[in-house]
Amino acid sequence: MKARLLGAAKPVALAAGVTLVASAAQAACPIQLAVYGEAQSGAEIDFTPAGSSATVTNAFRVILDNNVVLDGIAMWTEGSAARPHGSLMYKCPTGDVTGEELAACTVWEGVIYSADEKGGVGLLPAEGVDASKSLIFPDLGPSLEMSAAYGPAGFSKVPWDIFVLKGCQE
Description:
By secondary structure, the protein is mainly beta. It contains 2 helices and 13 strands, in the order E-E-E-E-E-E-E-E-H-E-E-E-E-H-E.
């Protein structure tokens, strides 16, 4: 899998083995191929196509230090005030799980916001729409710091709530 680094001048190899390919111009990138980074901790968000799920509208992974990976999804709520409700999970059981089991492995939940170059705030783009300049995960850091993923057996660098677009997978 390849990716192009937006606004950079040389290729960069990522921990996950993805290569970001340089692009002189800020080319459009669909959200399902976007790669975001958080400067303070080095955390990264890699989006992937959600597939044919009727409920999951966005799928992604949050990659933290010490090779800790959180699985993320967004599902849009219904109604006149529809929002992308995001969830991050750590070491969830697979297969047919109960709501209690899912709650036990969920380390963050909330609305995922986006921001553009001018500071305008919106919502996480739907799959197929161009990725926004940055994403905001409200209270992500404090939630992760209180999770089972944090500590001696997990990650040690707590990310802040804002991730900036840094590349596009090809």
